[in-house]
Amino acid sequence: MAVANCTRLFLRGTAHGLRLASVRSPLLLSLPMTRTHRLGPSDDELYQRTTVSVMQREESGGVLIYGYSPRGFNIDGNSVIGPCALLPPTILQWNVGNYKDITVESLALFYMLEPRIEVLVLGTGGRVERIDPNVLKFMNRKGIAVEVQDTPNACATFNFLSSERRIVAAGLIPPPPSRALE
């Protein structure tokens, strides 16, 4: 049916009044359309092989967090015990016990860097905790955006921003042990 309709459309002519065929053949209307040639690799550019020449290798994507646990973090294959500060390409121990210890003084290493970081990602442990608003205002005045998240999401956010080659740093507190299996 569809073949017959297409054939009638072609026999009728185009919008410009040109006829594509002048004879309406019943044989033409009844024949099913079949492919007589199967496309192969030489018929289309899609099947052609592509080669790439690397002129200059890019730098690595930066520091990535591969895992976290209640003990610490796996950052680029390095085991970091306890809270840490990531200042790519540097990993430092961060002297905080929990989210209440995050103060202007504990964040000093983040705003003293040159070049200045764009985003500071804070992982506050197993859940999102409220950071002192004065600390957030202070960091905002320094021109640094602060993202406060639970540690699992903070790790993912840091990796995402780092892969986009943003100037990002992180302060991470390990999450507490999970009680889900008990």
Please summarize what this structure is.
The protein is built from 5 helices and 8 strands. It has helices spanning 2-12, 26-30, 108-111, 133-141, 151-163; strands spanning 65-68, 72-75, 78-81, 84-87, 90-93, 119-123, 145-149, 168-172.
Which terms would index this structure?
182 residues; alpha/beta; 5-stranded mixed sheet; 3-stranded antiparallel sheet; 5 helices; 19% strand; globular
Tell me what you see in this structure.
- By secondary structure, this protein is of the alpha/beta class.
- The protein is built from five helices and eight strands.
- It has helices at 2-12, 26-30, 108-111, 133-141, 151-163; strands spanning 65-68, 72-75, 78-81, 84-87, 90-93, 119-123, 145-149, 168-172.
- β2 (72-75) and β3 form a beta hairpin.
- The chain starts with a helix and ends in a 10-residue tail after the last strand.
- The model is unreliable at 16-22 (pLDDT under 50).
